[in-house]
Design a protein that fits this description.
The chain is mostly helical. The chain contains 24 helices and twelve strands. A hairpin with a 4-residue loop joins strand 5 and strand 6.
């Protein structure tokens, strides 16, 4: 993936004005916004909570935002920027489970993340460590962005004007927030969180006095002493909802998307943003991911799929396709969705390369590749076929699979087909981890045995130069000669008896790849398998 935008084709600009693809729908909202709020440039923002490492949701939010940003660039010449903002002044609430030196971190609970020692011993603080991981993560996928740190923004005065405005409008903000809180929380709530000059911790305490003119607040510190601090210079931070709103105003954010779970927060932040004199950004709420059981994915429960796991079995482009499709629809995010998205990406890319502009601009591949689909990413073989080839040859050597591939695609080499070579590696890994452990062969019944023997006979004696389509037609014809309730049952029998799987590839294509004589041997071996050990 790359984030370098090419020059805009006038044809695509005209088509983008009415295109139905959701990134264009979002981009047109920004165009309308500029009509009432003209600006020299448009600011997109994504937020990051650096108490943990970047995850698949981080990728999704930045990838989707980047798609909208490119759609906007197709529609308008107004420059844009993407800010990846880290909320690294948040107080550390608990020690993460996946870090070393937990006791080192435990001694600093409550302090801003950028004041907690780095348990990995590599950076100035735990917050700096996780910020570095975020930048490395985003750079890995070629996203174009500007990194901003809450610690730097608060400390360097970027938020000073808005922090003073919070004090001037303190009662109005409290009037928005207090009705949403329980009785106990209302008693101690303040949108301004002072940082103790003595302990360095972010304090969840009520304010004793607010001096809007002086720009200071008074609170009881942890030792019960009355303490006054300025709201500028990094001496306080804001509660999350007020902080989000303040940031929109201070940075003049035009677009930010967020998860459906944040809809109530977004509404409150929108109210606070208006109180502070700002205009809330455009954006939309995307649906959350579901696990294999249809339950919402939770980082703490670990019931989802990590980005590293996806990238072990498939390309970043296939993951980008997953993020592109139906962003407002809850979708399962589990291992079994990967093969389909690999092949769907390949199909979309193949179509996009051949489509007229009016259709190409609606194609997911056009948005994944920012208007310049990459032909070298196209694979002449489906992931499903490669999975079944890996399943049959039981090899951990890519060269073995390439021996079959070179016969199916004459002259093909890993150097000439780098994406296909990557897919071979993905298929081998996926087979080893998910297909092989679940293989379950069964013995054929009398009708199935007769049909499988007929297929083996034909493969041993039939022509060797048939196309995949010709092979598929002959396999159909053989199935029709036997008493199957439907041809679906015939193919299901091949999959379960020969491959040990409930589903399988298009058989004509697989035989063309694997070889007719090799398939005949595979069938004979399946028919000779001891029924007692299948």
């Amino acid at each position: 993936m790359t984030d370098q935008a090419p020059p805009v084709d006038p044809t695509f600009r005209a088509l983008a004005a009415t295109a139905k693809a959701w990134p264009f729908e979002e981009a047109r909202k920004l165009l309308a916004r500029l009509g009432t709020r003209p600006k020299a440039d448009v600011l997109f923002e994504t937020g990051y909570g650096p108490s943990g490492l970047p995850h698949i949701g981080t990728f999704g939010e930045v990838a989707r935002t980047t798609m909208v940003r490119h759609a906007f660039a197709t529609l308008s010449d107004v420059p844009s920027r993407l800010v990846a903002f880290s909320d690294d002044m948040d107080g550390l609430r608990k020690v993460p489970d996946n870090i070393p030196n937990k006791e080192l971190v435990a001694a600093h609970l409550g302090k801003p993340l950028t004041r907690v020692p780095d348990p990995f011993g590599k950076f100035e603080s735990f917050g700096h460590h996780n910020n570095a991981m975020l930048r490395s993560f985003l750079d890995r996928f070629g996203f174009e962005y500007e990194f901003r740190s809450a610690t730097d923004a608060y400390g360097e005065g970027a938020f000073d004007a808005q922090l003073k405005a919070v004090l001037r409008h303190y009662d109005q903000i409290m009037a928005v927030m207090l009705p949403t809180l329980g009785a106990e929380r209302r008693a101690t709530y303040s949108p301004v969180l002072p940082i103790s000059p003595k302990s360095g911790r972010v304090l969840q305490v009520p304010l004793v006095e607010i001096n809007a003119e002086a720009g200071t607040v008074v609170f009881r510190d942890e030792d019960d002493t009355l303490t006054e601090v300025p709201v500028t210079g990094g001496h306080v931070k804001l509660q999350w909802k007020a902080d989000w709103a303040m940031r929109w105003v201070a940075l003049d954010v035009d677009y930010e998307m967020s998860g459906k779970d944040l809809i109530p927060t977004h509404k409150l932040s929108t109210q606070i943003c208006r109180i502070l004199g700002g205009t809330p950004p455009e954006g939309f709420s995307y649906e959350l991911f579901l696990d294999e059981n249809g339950e919402k994915i939770s980082k703490s429960r670990g019931n989802g799929l990590t980005i590293e796991e996806w990238l072990r079995y498939a390309s970043p482009e296939s993951l980008a396709l997953y993020m592109y499709l139906s962003p407002r629809k809850a979708k399962r995010l589990f291992f079994d969705v990967i093969p389909r998205h690999v092949d769907d990406y390949n199909d979309h890319l193949q179509a996009c390369l051949a489509e007229e502009p009016a259709r190409a601009i609606e194609n997911p591949a056009w948005h994944i590749h920012r208007g310049t689909p990459v032909a070298s990413n196209l694979s002449p073989i489906s992931f499903g076929l490669l999975l079944n080839l890996a399943s049959v040859v039981h090899s951990e050597d890519k060269a073995v699979l390439w021996g079959f591939i070179a016969r199916y695609v004459p002259g093909a080499t890993p150097a000439d087909h780098p994406m296909l070579d990557q897919m071979v590696g993905y298929a081998m890994a996926y087979y080893q981890d998910f297909v092989k452990p679940t293989k379950q062969f069964r013995a054929p019944d009398a009708v199935e045995r007769a049909a499988l023997e007929a297929l083996a006979d034909w493969l041993e004696s039939g022509p060797t130069d048939l196309s995949a389509e010709g092979l598929q037609n002959e396999i159909y014809e053989i199935g029709k000669r036997f008493a199957f309730a439907s041809l679906r049952d015939w193919f299901k029998a091949v999959y379960e008896v020969v491959f040990g799987q409930a589903q399988g590839p298009r058989l004509g294509s697989f035989v063309a790849l694997y070889g007719t004589s090799e398939m005949a041997v595979l069938l004979r071996a399946a028919l000779a398998r001891d029924p007692a050990i299948v």
